Amino acid sequence: MHRPEPDPSGFANALASRQFGVAGADLLAGGIPLRELAARYGTPMFVYDGGVIRRNYRALAGALSGFARVHYSVKANPAAAIIRLLRDEGAGVEIASLGEYRAARAAGVSPEDILFAGPAKSAHELESVAGGIGEIHLESFEEIDRLKAIAARLDVTVPVAIRVNPVASAQGGAMRMGGKPAPFGFDEETIAEVVGQVQSAPGLDLCGIHLFAGTQILDEAVLLAQWRHGIDVAERVADIAAHPLKTIDLGGGLGIPYFAGDGELDLAKLSRGLALLRQRLKSAPRLAGARIVVEPGRFLVGPAGIYVAGINAAKISRGIRFLITDGGMHHHLAASGNLGQVIKRDYPILAPARMNAGEGSPATIVGPLCTPLDTLARKAEMPDLAAGDLIAVLQSGAYGRTASPVGFLSHPLPSEILVENGNIEIIHLRDAS
Ligand SMILES: *Cc1c(COP(=O)(O)O)cnc(C)c1O
What we know:
By secondary structure, this protein is an alpha/beta fold. The chain folds into two domains: 8-49 and 302-428, Lyase, Ornithine Decarboxylase, Chain A, domain 1; 110-296, Alanine racemase (TIM Barrel, Alpha-Beta Barrel), CATH 3.20.20. Helices cover 29% and strands 25% of the residues. It contains eleven helices and 23 strands. The protein has helices at residues 8-19, 34-41, 50-63, 80-89, 98-106, 123-129, 141-154, 191-199, 220-241, 267-282, 298-301, and strands spanning 22-23, 26-29, 32-33, 45-49, 68-73, 92-95, 114-116, 135-138, 158-165, 175-176, 186-187, 204-211, 214-215, 247-249, 291-294, 305-317, 320-325, 349-350, 361-366, 375-382, 390-393, 415-420, 423-428. It starts with 7 loop residues before the first helix and ends in a 5-residue tail after the last strand. Pyridoxal-5'-phosphate (PLP) is lined by residues 73, 75-76, 94, 96, 117, 212, 215, 251-254, 295-299, 398.
């Protein structure tokens, strides 16, 4: 793994120049200074650089070429413009609600390219998609019964996969979902019974399996071990079912660096490691024709997003410098450290219109909410900044607005725009009234 220097401000600046580019004092997105975008559309705003999403997609699809197809996990960022960009690149999607299904269809994704997971799909959701979907990933016995009844009533055959909660195998994700009790999918120990139930339902066509063992994994060896386990489970399911599988969905979870000192996934190593998995697939006749799917969210869109906020006040309180901004945890819960993080560390953060200001001094950057939870950075190195200046949080394209308590304190939703090669596509404009 490549390790950047453990210096937060150096890390943020390195990400900025590598991913977006800097011209003089300005951080660019899609070739446009963030300062100009902020002046034009107002803050707070999320800016997504379409070129970065494309680059990440192509790098991953290239590394997995001939092994797996990439499906974008829409929950990372459901903006239609982003789904459309990834569809145009060749990605399928993975969704987890009827709302995401509709977003994907509105963005032009074909029904057969949509995979539907989620632990509590309602009868309404299942009924709405049953006639036009790539696969529904079954996660409970109630869901099997529910979908069986719907398939009979609509007189359709629904392609399904069994979501398996794997026994403890590879470790390493920040949030692990394998080996422990979990509401997601069926425990691996129970798959024989599950396969029996699915096969006894005439309207359900058992196509494959789905595993998702953890998120934010930065070690390719961990991913490869999980995928290897997924193939073992697939073979077992195919043997119990006594017929070949069409799909093996190995999940998402590919990580990105957030903090100084974080490694990065090594796609070249990941790609080399696939040789063994290919051999393993060849050794299982019932998996020979299976399509492999990988369904990342964060990896594709996380690095492309920048959250830009404007400073409303700068003050010193008992020796600590506070920068008080119009943006905060109501738009970006993850950056505030309140989205399940055990240790609160600062996301990469910088002053996007003061890129050449040199050494800064420590600042605590907070938002407009009346709670100390609303802190975007605790020890940022920032130049001298005052009301009217900007701050920018990098690595903010995944689990940003969509994973934030946007109703808390009743501020407007942030503007969201997609930029690429000087072109701007508006996703949402903040209602400033
Ligand atoms: C959230 C989720 C993903 C995407 O996870 P990332 O860590 O963003 O890659 C993929 N599959 C399922 C089932 C999910 O719930």
